[in-house]
Amino acid sequence: GEVIPEVVGPVLDLRSPDAVPWRAPTECPVCHTPLVRDEGEVDWRCPNRRCPEQLVQRLVHFASRDAMDIDGLGEQRARQLVEGGLVVVPPDLYFLANEDLACLPGVRERTLERLRAGIEASRRRPLARLLFALAIDNVGQHAAELIAERVGSLRGFETVSEEELCDVAGIGPVVAASVVAFRTDELGREILAKLHEAGVEGEAPVAASAVGPLSGLSFVLTGTVPGMTRAELAELIERHGGVVRTSVSGETSYL
Predict the structure, then answer these.
(1) 175-213 pLDDT, tens digit each
(2) Of the given ranges (14-28, 59-73, 148-162, 194-208), which has the lowest mean pLDDT?
(3) What phi, psi does 219 have (nearest 5°)?
(4) Which long-range contacts (CB under 8 A, 24 or more apart) does 43-52 make?
(5) I need a labelling partner for 203 at 20 to 30 A (CA). Which of 4, 15, 33, 175 fits?
(6) What are phi and psi of 89, to 5 degrees?
(7) Do 178 and 185 form a contact (C-beta atoms < 8 A)?
(8) Cα–Cα–Cα angle for 88, 191, 106, nearest 5°?
(9) 112-127 burial, b for 16+ CB within 10 Å, e for fewer?
(10) 226/235 Cα distance (integer angstroms)
(11) pTM above the 0.85 mark?
(12) What CA–CA distances, in Å, run from 150 to 100, 189, 205?
């Protein structure tokens, strides 16, 4: 209601006389599992973690630019991989042979080289981006960065307690509980096990330089920067001694 306009109610005078009440769906349109809604939330969700559409969108998120940044793996390719039975969980990507990728519709030699290069390059992504790529409920980019700084490794992520996470400034009980729920979920355990098997552990967080050209400066990032993502820019700032915050305050040096 201050910056973003608030919706306070419908304008009944403009409503069409033949309008009918909208009814929320009761089941997932893909796997037909009954939908659920958590108390206090608006969204209705499909609780089936193996829902085919969830598998596709989880792979799309895993490969997205701010996550593992796998060049050549968009929604169309992700859908082909899932529907073809080649990928069930995202780490299955690291076990695909060239023959598996070559059999996908529309994949020619140059496309294959690009996709293979993207998959191999993703093995070296920072831990924070790997944690974000896991699509854990309530864990966005900033939370993933805070968790990565606390745990230091994928093994550390698997053993850190809910109480220890809550001690991290910026991590609340909802995020901490979501992390533990992911680790104990059957699908989450499978994803973590296959990451270890593939040797994809996430590179340890880069420690910010105590002394650097940006020491003592606080940055808040918004909008876009040509040629790099906000996550990449934040990493660059921190490597040179600066601090990246999520909101503007009296301590903000640059927006």
Answers:
(1) 999 999 999 999 999 999 999 999 999 887 665 555 789
(2) 194-208
(3) -120, 145
(4) 49/185, 49/186, 49/187, 50/187, 52/82, 52/83
(5) 175
(6) -120, 150
(7) no
(8) 35
(9) beebbebbeebeebbb
(10) 16
(11) no
(12) 38, 21, 9
Q: Which of 135, 137, 136, 165 is nearest to 151 (CA)?
A: 165
pLDDT band with cut points at 50, 70 and 90 for residue 224: confident
H or E segment and range at residue 244: strand 243-245
Sheet strands (E) in 69-149: none
> Which stretch of DSSP H or E encloses residue 186?
helix 186-198
Cβ-based neighbour number of residue 87 at 10 Å: 23
